[in-house]
Each structure stands twice: as C-alpha cells, then as structure tokens.
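Email to the structure team, subject: Flavin reductase family protein model.

Hi all, the expression group asked for a predicted structure before they design truncation constructs. Nothing fancy, just the tokens so they can compare against earlier work. One-line instruction: predict Flavin reductase family protein, return tokens.
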Amino acid sequence: MAAEHTVLDPRTMRDVMGNFCTGVTVITALDGGDPLGFACQSFSSVSLDPPLVSFCPARTSTTWPKIREIGTFAINVLAESQRTLCAAFAVSGGNKFRGIRWAPGDNGAPAIEGALARVEATIENEVDAGDHTIVIARVTGLTTLHNGGPLLFYRGEYGHYSRM
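Reply from the structure team: attached below.
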C-alpha cells in the first residue's frame, strides 16, 4: 500500500519553518586562484565522533557543483555585522568576493575576515532531498575567530542575538 502524501503550499512551508531561527554561513573554496562561495543557513553539527557537519545547498546552485568538484571547503560562521556580506553571497553569479577581505585557511579555502568561526571540511556523503542536496562533511579543522554575536535569520529577516 502506497503512503499518501499531503500537498503543502510552499509559501506556508516557508512561513512556518521561518519560525526556527538559524545562524548564517558562507561556504567557500578556492578554484585555482579564484575564490568561490555561497550563503547557507541550513548548517548543523551532525556527529562528534567522527566529526561531521551538514549543510543543504539548493539544487539550482551554480557554485556548489564547483565546490563539490574541489572537494575541500570552509564553512564561515557569519557575525552579526556581516549582513551586507551575506547578501552578496546570497545571489547567483557575479564576483561575490568583490570588496571582501579573506585569506586562505589551513586547507586553502577562503577564510572570510570578521567571521565568528571557521569549519574546514571535505565531502563525506551527499543525499538528494527535493529541491536541495544534503551534504555531510567530515571536519578537518576548527577555528574560533571572534567572540561577537552571530548573524541570525528569522522569519525572512536578518537579526542578532541579545542576552537577557
């Protein structure tokens, strides 16, 4: 017997899921001398042993296939002051690194100046998941860079964390 699937309105799905606050990252890699990157809010820790993280690029991404081919990358955890930087990486095409200060990290992938932390990794596995891909990555390096607040995404808007 086949399972029945409820048809849900994508806008309703987005609105309801927007109630879950997420941090924002930029996934980067170096293609020869050219830096690549895209903004990604679907990032999480998966396992401590072995050290694994996950993120979900859109299947329409033109940057992820290039980073996949390189195989090593960095996940830059953005600070609350990096809203404009995030917007530059959230669009398709163009020179996303124009005006962005960065240096090669330990694995060569661009480490974005001002980010709170950097997770360096390699691809462990990928799973097709609707209009996105679930990437499971093995962590090869971890760096905490700053103690400031994170850039957050909530109900379709950027915000910041405030301690009570």
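The helical segments are 10-17, 64-70, 83-89. Residues 76 and 138 are 15 Å apart (CA to CA). Ping us if the truncation boundaries need rechecking.
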